[in-house]
Design a protein that fits this description.
Number of domains: 1
Number of strands: 0
Structural class: mainly alpha
Largest sheet: none
Helix content: over 70%
């Protein structure tokens, strides 16, 4: 079955969302200075803490965000309400600085994940499905790397392929045990891989917040850009999944690769 003209437009829109400027570019534009300058202001041991913080935030969000939503596939999403919540969380983080990041990150991550699930639902996904829940978490790995990030693969389908085995193992684990309670090794392994990508973006966000004079207002704007990025990734991701449900990945992947990343 060939794609309709509407589906081709959706596929093109998805690629533009998924393959274009990520968090670093947006934050650099906002603060008016390269994000690397903000990185220089972070504590020396910050990179060691990122993996632990991001993985803990993802576990907390996974338990609280997606799994309490009503299952109404096709219902319109409400991105603006989630952006408001993220802005409030970012404002508090910006006011108190790096000392509050360990407390603020799980809150903002939960808000973002709930927004991702809301978008998934609007694209016809069932949020009760294990596959959908894991696909929502996958979004945190999208659009987060760059050619300068050692060992971090980039590109939408490349990232999905890298995560594929962990997704399968986590799906089997959740099917047997659920997600409530202590996370098992399969789920921890999956979240650790997600955290590898997500940690890059968290570091970029915190670097922007570390720039002098950003403050509470700056923190709110930064968090708004942060959630906006993941909302774009989620929209593109779940458009692709919707098209794959109809046509299969073997049809969608080469069409996606052939489309331009910019129009």
């Amino acid at each position: 079955m060939s794609l309709s003209s509407i589906e081709f437009k959706e596929l093109q829109a998805a690629k533009i969302l998924l393959e274009n400027p990520g968090v670093a570019a947006r934050l650099t534009h906002l603060i008016g200075t390269p994000i690397e300058k903000g990185l220089d202001l972070l504590p020396q041991d910050w990179s060691e803490k990122v993996q632990e913080l991001t993985q803990a935030a993802l576990i907390s969000a996974a338990h609280a965000a997606v799994f309490t939503m009503d299952d109404i596939p096709g219902e319109a999403s409400s991105e603006q309400w989630h952006k408001l919540g993220a802005a409030i969380s970012g404002g508090l983080g910006g006011f108190f600085g790096l000392t509050l990041i360990a407390a603020e990150l799980p809150v903002s991550t939960t808000i973002i994940l709930r927004s991702i699930a809301d978008i998934a639902r609007s694209e016809g996904e069932s949020v009760l499905s294990i596959e959908t829940k894991l696909a929502c978490l996958e979004v945190f790995a999208l659009g987060g790397g760059s050619s300068s990030d050692d060992g971090v693969e980039t590109g939408y389908f490349t990232v999905r392929s890298t995560l594929a085995k962990s997704v399968t193992e986590a799906t089997e684990y959740i099917a047997r045990h659920g997600v409530v309670g202590e996370a098992g090794p399969a789920l921890i392994k999956f979240l650790a891989k997600i955290a590898k990508y997500f940690g890059i973006q968290v570091t970029q966000k915190v670097a922007a917040q570390a720039v002098p004079a950003m403050g509470a207002a700056g923190g709110a704007v930064i968090n708004t850009l942060f959630i906006d990025h993941f909302q774009d990734m989620a929209r593109g991701h779940f458009i692709i999944r919707k098209l794959e449900r109809t046509h299969g990945r073997r049809v969608i992947r080469p069409l996606y690769d052939a489309l331009p990343a910019r129009v």
